[in-house]
Amino acid sequence: MTVIEEVLKSNESYAKGFTLGDLPMPPGRKLAIVACMDARLTVEEMLGLKTGDAHIIRNAGGIVTADALRSLIISHHLLGTQEFIIINHTDCGMLTFKDEELRAKLQRQTGTATVVPSHFHAFSDVAENVRQQMQKIKSHPWIPEHIPVRGFVYDVKTGRLTEVSA
Amino acid sequence: MTVIEEVLKSNESYAKGFTLGDLPMPPGRKLAIVACMDARLTVEEMLGLKTGDAHIIRNAGGIVTADALRSLIISHHLLGTQEFIIINHTDCGMLTFKDEELRAKLQRQTGTATVVPSHFHAFSDVAENVRQQMQKIKSHPWIPEHIPVRGFVYDVKTGRLTEVSA
Question: What is the ipTM of this complex?
């Protein structure tokens, strides 16, 4: 059995016990989060969020890419979120390589160059990376200035968030 | 108290009971998921996943953007995932608008035009949208052909996943 088959079995059980069919589309707690895709981050649990509470945007690194900005703009303007959080974390895979090395390796392995993705967004300092992502949100003309944007580093050894000063 | 202050309080409790500090960086079940950011999708719960099991990539719509491709490439080539899932869902906010209408509205409201994001990726047919996203993964030269890519629509009324044929 593939892992996909296993998780589909789990979904059958989940659906049998499902009681949340009446939740509205807009997030109940008006919160949007940008976090890393890392398997060790269970975002809802680490923040005490329930199904229906918050938009959760995730990608490699917890980077405020054009795509994350797209999602945040939709989150606020169409679905009413009013506070934003960015979460990066210790021991991130993005600390382990350099963009150009990875690009060269993939070109060599596959024999094909490509322009998408244009960047991998590897970084060398987690707190500084969080600061740069906060800045990208705060400087976007379609994100209102009154929205709080706070950034954190999650420690995968302790489960604890530490705030990064802006 | 802001919602951010509330979730930070919740994180203090989470960290006090935290016992997962020894999980390795690569996802234990070698699975990567691209899903919508919608607040009604608690991806781990709907699939029976535990902390450490899978990479979870999320954005508005569950779209395979350049950023999602970036994340999937890192997920497979650096961290060893071997199966990919795409999850869109019923009652998605992306079914409720058209890209050009939203862009025009934001330009009017803010008095500023911007080229980032270049697209909002609104769509009108969820199953067809899932098919298009699967195709974007399968046709990327840096995603090996042997990786299974399966797509699903999650029903927010029932908690159930339905597979979309390729």
Answer: 0.98
